[in-house]
Specification:
About 30% of the residues are buried. By secondary structure, the chain is α+β, with helices and mostly antiparallel strands. Helix content is about 10%, strand content about 25%. A hairpin with a 2-residue loop joins strand 11 and strand 12. The chain has a six-stranded antiparallel β-sheet. Strands 1-2 form a two-stranded antiparallel sheet. The longest helix has 18 residues. It is built from five helices and 14 strands.
């Protein structure tokens, strides 16, 4: 059985369920009210948290077991070895402010990921009935946008770890990875969909997971990582909600972010350099520059990020402004790929 098909959102299932016609022998079941269903989900999740205890082994595998009658184990909520935490997730389309409980078994020590990136995760999925519906001890790559929404909210709270490649070209041993447990209301899970025979519709989901690695994505291949395709002035904004030129295409999918008819990847390209009398490409400016310049790369100043419209003195030969150091580093600058008044030639 394919181990990861169960947590991927199968839109076709929803379309099939919603495409019944008058000739169908079974009437279409109305979608449950999101607010009412969330209240039922939270009741089930809270009961589970109060009636189960958690054990964690040396490799951060979490097992949750129902407290037996007369048992003295502390519930998931009451134990303090791995404190129960939560994140509020506002879903305006559904009109619900979801409370998502999670447990951090270990935060991780390396890279953070985001909801638009890909994660290398091993996991176990169960229902509040303690039925296991999915499991993969070997990590699997998941673009977080393609799995249940709850993953994109909780996985980014953790970091990857380190890995040992000494025995071959592929990672063989992972260490210091982030590990946790999340309790997902059905509105951030499958809701009315039925991804497998093991998961009824409207099921709250429980996942224990280990974040082994991650990859930053560039959806539109404009050389700006998708995680940066947000308005820096809007705290907590998601890339899917940022459309700087108002053309109806979020920046992470838009190859011309400011609508000036110059592709973004052209606007963030460094000037060519001359090598042996030949003009050659010198790559692209990063979204943010580094703290220190690398002396081993004399043709690149790593401290320079994507610049704003140049603000230095006018070059009398080109009649264009010249760059100042702050044009590449000012944290409040409007980067030129977002400025419709800034386009080639630049100097």
């Amino acid at each position: 059985m394919n181990k990861y098909f169960k947590i991927v959102l199968f839109l076709l299932i929803g379309l099939t369920i919603g495409s019944c016609t008058k000739s169908d022998s079974t009437a279409t079941v109305p979608l449950r009210d999101y607010t009412v269903q969330n209240a039922a989900d939270m009741d089930s999740i809270n009961k589970y948290i109060d009636t189960h205890y958690i054990t964690v082994d040396a490799d951060y595998n979490a097992t949750m077991t129902k407290i037996p009658v007369g048992g003295t184990q502390q519930s998931i909520r009451l134990q303090q070895t791995y404190p129960l935490q939560f994140k509020m997730v506002q879903n305006d389309e559904q009109g619900v402010n979801y409370k998502v409980y999670y447990i951090s078994l270990r935060e991780g020590t390396n890279q953070s990921t985001t909801a638009v990136d890909s994660s290398f995760v091993s996991y176990r999925g169960t229902l509040v009935s303690d039925v296991q519906f999915d499991f993969s001890d070997n990590p699997i790559w998941f673009p977080l946008q393609t799995v249940v929404a709850g993953w994109g909210e909780i996985i980014p709270l953790f970091k990857t770890g380190t890995f040992d490649t000494s025995e071959g070209p592929n990672p063989t041993t992972f260490a210091n990875f982030g590990a946790g447990v999340m309790f997902i209301p059905s509105g951030l899970g499958y809701y009315n969909q039925i991804p497998s025979a093991y998961v009824p519709s409207y099921s709250p989901l429980i996942f224990s997971f280990k974040l082994k690695s991650q990859r930053y994505r560039d959806h539109d291949r404009d050389y700006i990582l998708s995680k940066y395709e947000v308005d820096p002035a809007v705290v907590g904004q998601k890339p899917k909600d940022y459309d700087s030129d108002g053309d109806g295409v979020p920046n992470l999918y838009d190859i011309d972010d400011d609508g000036d008819h110059f592709m973004t990847k052209i606007e963030i390209k460094r000037p060519n350099i001359i090598v042996n009398g030949v003009s050659v490409s010198n790559g692209y400016y990063p979204y943010n520059g580094a703290d220190v310049d690398d002396p081993s790369t004399p043709n690149i100043d790593e401290r320079q990020g994507i610049p704003r419209k140049f603000t230095g003195p006018i070059n009398t030969l080109t009649n264009l402004p010249t760059p100042l150091p702050s044009d590449f580093t000012d944290p409040t600058r409007l980067r030129r790929h977002l400025d419709p008044t800034s386009f080639p030639p630049y100097e």
